[in-house]
Amino acid sequence: MDKKQLKKRIDVAVGRIPADVVIRNAKVVDVCGGKILEGDIAVCDGIIAGVGSYEGKKQYDAAGKYAIPGLIDGHIHIESACVSPEELSRMIVPFGTTTIVADPHEIVNVCGITGLNYMLDAAEKAALDIKYMLPSCVPATPFEHAGAVIDAGAMEQPISDGRILGLGEFMNFPGVVNAFPQDLEKILVACHNGKIIDGHCPGLSGKELNAYASTGIHSDHECTTVEEMESRLSAGMYVIMRQGSACHNLEELLKGVTPYNSRRCLLCSDDRQPKTIFEEGHLDNHLRLCVKNGIDPVTAVQMASLNAAECFGLSDRGAIVPGRRADVVLVDDLESFRVHQVFIGGQEAARDGVYLLPVERQDITPVRGSFHVKDFSPEKLHMHLTSGHVHVIDVMPGGVVTGKGIADIIIDKNGEFVYSPKEDIVKLAVVERHNNTGNVACGFLRGYGLKKGAVAVSIAHDSHNIIVAGTSDEEMAAAVRQVIEQEGGAALIWEGKTIENMPLPIAGIMSDKSGEWVDKKLTDLHLAAFEKMGISREVDPVMTLAFMALPVIPELKLTDMGLFDVTRFEFISVEA
Amino acid sequence: MDKKQLKKRIDVAVGRIPADVVIRNAKVVDVCGGKILEGDIAVCDGIIAGVGSYEGKKQYDAAGKYAIPGLIDGHIHIESACVSPEELSRMIVPFGTTTIVADPHEIVNVCGITGLNYMLDAAEKAALDIKYMLPSCVPATPFEHAGAVIDAGAMEQPISDGRILGLGEFMNFPGVVNAFPQDLEKILVACHNGKIIDGHCPGLSGKELNAYASTGIHSDHECTTVEEMESRLSAGMYVIMRQGSACHNLEELLKGVTPYNSRRCLLCSDDRQPKTIFEEGHLDNHLRLCVKNGIDPVTAVQMASLNAAECFGLSDRGAIVPGRRADVVLVDDLESFRVHQVFIGGQEAARDGVYLLPVERQDITPVRGSFHVKDFSPEKLHMHLTSGHVHVIDVMPGGVVTGKGIADIIIDKNGEFVYSPKEDIVKLAVVERHNNTGNVACGFLRGYGLKKGAVAVSIAHDSHNIIVAGTSDEEMAAAVRQVIEQEGGAALIWEGKTIENMPLPIAGIMSDKSGEWVDKKLTDLHLAAFEKMGISREVDPVMTLAFMALPVIPELKLTDMGLFDVTRFEFISVEA
């Protein structure tokens, strides 16, 4: 801001000159004063100059609708929507979200700082204001190969970037509680750069929670119970209440919101797939749930705006008051929160669900071609078992937790698995795809329902190697090859052919196409998986596999390095 | 913080090693979670490691007393207590205040950046954590001579100092509303350095208030009515509710505090003299008043701690939670708020009203000798009037506002004032004392009650020239000379002699002695002024004069440049 701009803003505020834009006749939800004011919102150079009675060069009539501040999602992984940042902007802005705090954990695990830079560049093309946290756990664990290793030293440069608010969810809470040097070094990098650190500590309590909070980690979005929520608030942490595609924690947590602590509560989606966005909306849906669950509307709006702004140090937004960004959402009422119009920096960005701004796409070249798989062949899937008495990963529908089971399978004379229609057991393999290690690890999956063919995906939290399940090595190999050829995504092989596939060329985890395209592709994939391949309708055919390689979620997982017993925190042999 | 310290903190929090200090068996007021927890507070290297069940190398038994966070005064002028920063620390820490946000407006108006540096250095000797705002209005107005001129250019260096939070109360609100370049430049200096700006805008409303707030000025401590308070909250400003020695706004403003807006409200004293501190306490008194006026105790404590920390970006304090400074106050209950013990950074600083730490004094040499008065003599007080029909400043008891009156006085053959016992009118003069200008301006004061002798003071807001009132030029001159000789303060001349005086060698406005000494001196001065000199008991003999030279408070004032009509905003002649 220079002197001329500041003078113009003052002149607009006083009414000496007309505003650039005026949103007239609004019922303004005043999240600072905690009440509702009637008036016009005057905008100058994208900033609110005043609320009162104003004239402007461009005028919109709010016609008595409620004006709420642009909504702020406190924690989201863009990659979970399988679309680019610009595309997510197009999808969620019409629902009133104008700022997100995104953790590009997935793409950075694939592409490292190149992935981060792509996300930063793409964000600049989005009307949505995307603030990033630097992923804190790359790789997520030492039990797998990711596409990058970002230690404390490698964090120094990116964390000093003004577009990076701090360190993303610090998932390695055991590392913090046990004061592992490499984790402390990361915390200190944030600390010395004056940046915040987001938390992630499901189940942590008591003195261990104190230890975690004592390092300055300032938030948790993993609460599932009021008790957990209250313990984090009392430890001085913000609680970011989550309502995503997979995790629905908001309604339970709202029971713990009080007039004394609501200021420390905010809202997030964490993971939100296109289908959920199109069907339910985004933070507007959170607001509906808040009010439906008895939260006062002004408090609800505070949680979605001012509180998030305070939590993340975004003092330039989060309220419709002079001097802040003119991010304004007009809603029909404070119950349905039906979004009529969305203004970003005073510019009309969406009306009645339609995004109005041009969508400019970021070049994806730097994050394409992320597959580096050495000497892959069906032979790599051979297991040379000496016995059919094996450990199996038991699918548990409706979540990402798995069971650790034991089963007897049929093996042929070479010690290779033979699929039997009598048992709901298929082979599972993880193919390292970042570093040409040639690593392929195999195991068994029970309860997936697959009866014929193979499913391969390169969305595989958190390292995003290729994970494949199948009834024969040949079809599994074909599925893996198809995924590599299409630069990532998902592929279904049935009777030797690719019957459905979804290429995800951005780092092998995101599409360069629309959210509608992703949604349609996933629907088609699911249909084929259920109807042709017999996969259980109780599970998500793609996402179930996507969480099979995540060695921090109990109980048994498979990474490119082998079968991992999460409870014992060690690799175990497939043969039981 | 280094890795070793962080590891130690974690180890203490988890309970692997004993804490440095533990405050046991406390009822902890949890301002983040909004409730009361029972437990021990573990401290490591001055920082809270956890609240729970802990062992420590040094242990204090809170015996069930309430632990509240160290109190934070959001706006105070140390100079108003007429003592040094270290001494104010000694005086208010026993009442539970552990952080103040101080605006050294007075000393900087006298000594410029030298005064600021003295205050910064002195603060480092105080246990009280003193954060400074850089005075924004030096001189306060163009209608007087101060000891320094600090324009935007001169602000660049000091505002970048980490010990300076931002710009102090921006009193020239007409300058902001009218977009005067020199005021905009100051705002931009703060803005470009990422610093905050405190406000001061009594009476401002509507679009002009919008304009003021639109510049980023983030607070106001001058509210006197709920209406004024609500307008500032709705403009996005924090309201710092004041209870000082002169201004008592808190109880009225508490009527406007709601569960929705309390987070934007904080507490301050602004001006607090030793007598008020010794008799009423400091922020503990504010808390008593809050609860007495129906504010929930947790909300009251939030206003005195967390809210202030948030307002000023002091994320390292304001709550008894892991990772924040171990500034802890033990109080008997949440009604009397009687302070039992005060811990600063985990160190016991006061117990039962007694300050326990050594008091180390900052060298005052750089801010001594601040008197530069050219050729002063009784002749300088001659007025050469052509008529006795003159303007008089009417004293209005109980405030700093004055009236503009007209009176007929007796003049001698040389046109000089002759005191008449029939009229309660004395001569008033302001002697410039910073720049050897030789400026002496004279006028008349009605209603002060002085019947014999002269009173001179070098506390004269905001430029702190010497102001003197008297019944004869000779005694006035003697009083001025006495003040100069003693390097500032106050002096009473009666029957040609100094009957009482209070030297204030620090910039001519603060003592290097104790608060008790200041209090005793003022009491003696007042007694002599009332009993010997006949000054009206309805006024404060010293402070009444101290505000006579402040040309921003209506209606008629006298600066070293002449008689100033504040309403007309221009100098007027003494002869009516």
Question: How would you explain this protein's 3D organization?
Answer:
Two copies of one chain form a homodimer. The first copy, chain A, is α/β, with parallel strands linked by helices. In chain A, 27% of the residues lie in helices and 28% in strands. Chain A is built from 17 helices and 30 strands. In chain A, the strands form six sheets. In chain A, strands 1, 2, 3, 4, 5, 14, 15, 16 and 17 form a nine-stranded mixed sheet that branches. The first copy, chain A, has an eight-stranded mixed sheet with strand order 19-18-23-22-25-24-26-27, sandwiched between helices. In chain A, a hairpin with a 6-residue loop joins strand 18 and strand 19 (402-408). Chain A is elongated, with a radius of gyration of 25 Å. At the A-B interface, helix 1, strand 2, strand 3, helix 7 and helix 8 of A face helix 1, strand 2, strand 3, helix 6 and helix 7 of B.
Short description:
The first copy, chain A, has 576 residues and is an alpha/beta fold.
Question: Topology of this structure?
Answer:
The structure is a homodimer of 576-residue chains.
Chain A: H1 3-14, E1 19-30, E2 35-44, E3 47-52, E4 56-61, E5 66-69, E6 71-76, H2 85-92, E7 97-102, H3 105-111, H4 113-123, E8 129-134, H5 152-159, E9 164-170, H6 173-177, H7 181-192, E10 196-199, H8 206-214, E11 219-220, H9 226-234, E12 238-242, H10 250-254, E13 265-268, H11 274-280, H12 283-292, H13 297-304, H14 306-311, E14 328-331, E15 339-344, E16 347-351, E17 354-355, E18 389-395, E19 402-408, E20 410-411, E21 417-418, E22 425-431, E23 440-446, E24 454-457, E25 466-470, H15 473-485, E26 489-494, E27 497-503, H16 515-531, H17 541-546, E28 556-559, E29 562-565, E30 570-572
Parallel strand pairs in A: 1-4, 1-5, 6-7, 7-8, 8-9, 9-10, 11-12, 12-13, 18-23
Antiparallel strand pairs in A: 1-2, 2-3, 5-14, 14-15, 15-16, 16-17, 18-19, 20-21, 22-23, 22-25, 24-25, 24-26, 26-27, 28-29, 29-30
